[in-house]
Write a structure and sequence with these properties.
Radius of gyration: 21 Å
Largest sheet: 2 strands, antiparallel
Strand order of the largest sheet: 1-2
Strand content: under 5%
Number of helices: 11
Number of strands: 2
Shape: elongated
Structural class: mainly alpha
Helix content: 55-70%
């Protein structure tokens, strides 16, 4: 989208406050409508587009700036910052990412890289520390995944159970730092899971990979839990058509237990 055109920028209610305007504008950046280094629309143009006061627009832009999405410089105007400068752990970013349908492609890669680095280790912790209550939560989420897998009308419910499955594993590790990281990045992880699920028709292979994670944690086998989690992420990488993933992560088929 040319940076000088606003016709594709969503509108907001005439009485929208600065937070709502910030949400609309943040979504355009987080979805990749503007690239790093692009000149962002001028305050006056945004005032006209949203039929909003200059004060509200300035407050909205200030919020985007505080989250690292844009940089405002006298004489240069406003530019979109590089994704490496985005403050993904900022509470505002969590709010914006939670309602994002099509995240920036590079953001998808970065969130997957986090999951690849963190979740195999978190599963190891869970295999060592999970309580009976933890196991019950993981199993309940997995059973929900199974019950909703074959019904296209329950795809959103299936995604919710998938998210609950991974959240339960973060919790079962009983490590405060990892659990907090999982909570902070939950909206980003949700967006990744939603995106991968919408690209596949059948979920049999995914269910089998998740079942192996559950069984490894239940049997107190940390090495097996790590490997099983890597296989889950390999499936995710394949569904998202991510390039550059480790060659050891192959999407299938699985070897027999």
């Amino acid at each position: 989208m040319p940076v000088t055109e606003l016709e594709h920028l969503p509108h907001a209610a005439a009485d929208a406050d600065a937070d709502t305007l910030a949400l609309v504008l943040a979504h355009t950046i987080l979805s990749g409508q503007w690239a790093s280094g692009d000149i962002f629309p001028r305050e006056l143009d945004l005032c006209r587009h949203f039929d909003a006061s200059r004060n509200r627009i300035r407050n909205a832009l200030a919020t985007l700036s505080s989250c690292g999405l844009i940089e405002r410089t006298a004489g240069r105007g406003t530019i979109v910052r590089d994704i490496a400068d985005w403050h993904l752990l900022d509470p505002n970013m969590s709010l914006w990412l939670a309602g994002l349908d099509t995240p920036h492609p590079q953001l998808v890669h970065e969130v997957f890289a986090f999951r690849l680095a963190a979740e195999p280790y978190v599963s190891e912790l869970a295999a060592l520390a999970a309580t009976a209550q933890d196991l019950a939560k993981i199993e309940s989420a997995f059973n929900g995944m199974c019950e909703t897998a074959d019904d296209p009308e329950q795809r959103n419910a299936h995604i919710d159970y998938d998210i609950a499955f991974h959240e339960a594993i973060y919790s079962a590790g009983h490590n405060l730092v990892w659990r907090q990281m999982g909570l902070l990045l939950r909206p980003s992880i949700v967006a990744l899971i939603q995106r991968s699920h919408h690209r596949v028709d059948r979920l049999d292979d995914s269910l089998e990979r998740h079942r192996r994670v559950l069984e490894a944690i239940r049997m107190r086998q940390p090495a097996a839990a790590r490997e099983a989690t890597e296989h889950v992420l390999a499936r995710t990488a394949a569904d998202l058509e991510l390039s550059g993933r480790p060659t050891a992560l192959r999407p299938g088929p699985l070897t027999p237990l």
